[in-house]
Amino acid sequence: PVAWDALVVIVHPDNPVENITFDQVRGLYLGKITNWKQIGGNDAPIELYVRRGKLSGVGRTLRELVFANYNQDFKATYVVTSSGPVEKGVVKHINGFGVSGIRRAKKRKLKLLKLDGKAPTYENIKNGSFALYRPLYLVIKRGESRPLVRDFIKFAASREGQDIIRSQGTVPYAEALHLVMKQL
Question: Model-level pTM?
């Protein structure tokens, strides 16, 4: 593990909604909330973007943290192949709604909603008060011996590597070890 990443709720920048509750996220993905006025927005249908499949990092983590069920089905308006099209769809459609990793979402013109009143800030991710977070891993083949691979792993754990992790909106893993116990 090298970092902690936040999953962020994303909407179009012109959407007036600023905050969503955990229960509202659950209701939206279950198809119980279908109109923005149900959560304080305009009277318009919610266009829910989700990734195809249940094994993607974002989709799997969302199912785990919000539903405690890796097989939970979602009632989506659009099912797309990856997080990029989720973000692009929400950027293009004022009634769009999706979830993505914070690092990717910050690269686009999107609004990141507060979740239960907590913004997905570095400090809120680090202290666990922003509830949707996950560990990020570097995965290598057992017995990997190539010097460049070992050097990259050392770099990721170095001060410079940790600074890069922070600059992307993610939290270095060792700075928030208590999050492991919070998710149990």
Answer: 0.90
